Amino acid sequence: MTVDPNTVRDLDPGTRLLMGPGPSNVSARVLQAMSAPCIGHLDPYFLSVMDETQGLLRFLFQTENPLTIPVSGTGSAGMETCFVNLVEPGDEVVVCIHGVFGTRMADIVQRIGGNLITVEGEWGRAIDPEAVRKAIKGRSPKLLAIVHAETSTGVCQGLEEIAGIAHEAGALFLVDMVTSLGGMEVTVDKTGIDAVYSGTQKCLSCPPGLAPISFNSSAMDILENRKSPVVSWYLDMSMVKSYWGTERKYHHTAPINMIYAFREALRIIAEEGLEARFARHKLNHKAFVAGIEAMGLTILVPQSERLPMLNTIRIPEGADDTKVRRALLKDFGIEIGGGLGALQGKIWRVGLMGHTSHRKNVVLFLAALETILKAEGVSIKGGALEAASEVYGES
Amino acid sequence: MTVDPNTVRDLDPGTRLLMGPGPSNVSARVLQAMSAPCIGHLDPYFLSVMDETQGLLRFLFQTENPLTIPVSGTGSAGMETCFVNLVEPGDEVVVCIHGVFGTRMADIVQRIGGNLITVEGEWGRAIDPEAVRKAIKGRSPKLLAIVHAETSTGVCQGLEEIAGIAHEAGALFLVDMVTSLGGMEVTVDKTGIDAVYSGTQKCLSCPPGLAPISFNSSAMDILENRKSPVVSWYLDMSMVKSYWGTERKYHHTAPINMIYAFREALRIIAEEGLEARFARHKLNHKAFVAGIEAMGLTILVPQSERLPMLNTIRIPEGADDTKVRRALLKDFGIEIGGGLGALQGKIWRVGLMGHTSHRKNVVLFLAALETILKAEGVSIKGGALEAASEVYGES
Fold first, then answer.
1. Measured between alpha carbons, how far is B144 from B199 in angstroms, rounded to an integer?
2. Cβ <8 Å between B1 and A255
């Protein structure tokens, strides 16, 4: 089972056009920053890097929350961080489920002994706030959690009304922004989000490995007044905050080079400007959908509930899911994602996230898909590229 | 609290000689591999990278265990992974404590509801197997845990006898190899270690961010026959193993570029050869100690219990801990560590780990320390460099 080191060759991944549900393509600037010399996690220069990173992340989250940091793990570690810090055994927790990531939240709540109440919605549609109101009626949950951008379905969930419902019931409002952050407007303070987590490998165009989170003062109150210790030592924010705060107390060794990369990704976003970035994501999404629909293919999600950074295409009759994805990767170097859970074999998930959200990628993908489907004998209409071009012409 | 992006300048950490307790200096090859283009976590090429990484890691751990992988977090996440997977609430767990990292293990056991039994040893000495035998007598613990290389004290813990004691009592033997792996012999299978975790930023000379672990069949049996789910979704090896195994089932997005770096660090180790690498660490340690003792300074740990990669020097009378460390960093670009816990202000921790374990670094450090202590008016003897040179002459 071990390996002869002489058989392990130089690393050479080549390049891919990453149009799956993440990771997205990483810019050369981010890769370069990541490969700067590693220094100590208590080095004065690194402490300044941490401060700048937190400042930039607050800007992106649109928050003033002091505890706004990247957790030392991938997006799912961010999800786990929020639940283990804010929920104690026996606490009532409402989880809205309309895809894989809501299901994952429910799983975590149960593992840590939370009293789980679910609001189930159709996969491919947003959750109706009325359903949330009903489920919560007469209850006083500790926390209500929902996914902003369901990466498994491509659905964008409205947050304002549900934030109000949570707060009326005295619950913290926790939002999964793994896929939305950096690709569409997220206003943590204005929307009244008490705790939020995200990932770096989606619209931030940074390699996977960190989970940006932010807790407001209500969340910090809950954390500071726990009766039981946080079940995870590694993710215990009551200790981690001392390292990211003014005390600089060692907790665990921060992933230095990943934080270099993250800081650079945030700088790039700040330079582009939030409005311009979100407009870019919208425009490329619109052109993409125009092309897909011109081909005669359909999008899983109704127009008003679509995400700008993740498109879910129903697999047309006669097309072989795996065969098409393999041809995209092999012949065109394009990675897309398949469906998860109930949607496996039924949809393709095509990301236009961060650095990947560019006209050239929209055009290449439409051309590649058209070529492959035609070769497979799938009946499709022409005019995809023209339809996309028209959208760009309009802008 | 947010930051004006225009005030955040290009990243420029400069270079440091990392002679603290980790991170150690990372070689250019590792940094270069880390900055290769990010590809998907289910990309066929990345799957081959995973296989090679596992093979190389088995070679380094000296094990045939199928579950031998890097966990997606830093060393402490590796510690937590072992406990949350192998311990259930109410399980009796023996933790040997002779420094900060034993204390951390005990903390984790209590958080997850384990029934903790501690064997406490002096900080700066190895744990006496007799003390372990006594503590375990008449008990049937589920697991016995100990730190191989206590990074807080510089002590090397003998493992063979304690492995036998654990197994006689029917307990799993869990070992913390965060600092030892890659710098001294570790023989997981031969020593009878059932579960082990490590970090990448010590003797592997890879940036922090991953925690190599390995579970043998006894540990896997315990995991597969649990009565309760693993409290951590993120670190649940019963799911993570399906991603690293033949099923390739998506769990969380792997930290792709960190795994590139880790694979390259493992390749470098395999190319050097384990014996040569361990001999290098021993030799530089010997020269270092000869120099330190020639100055009239003393090492905290008795000679027979010293680690080759981490030296703990008693701070001499008249020397100001912080001032000396600041001067080392500012005037010579050298980072060393201070004492932790009970040893704060009493010792300096000087690492010679992985890439950092080199004659040029030993010599520079001795010269720098001598200069600073003399300038501080601390009474020290001369001849440090000569004493070190003599050791190299002998080899």
1. 20
2. no
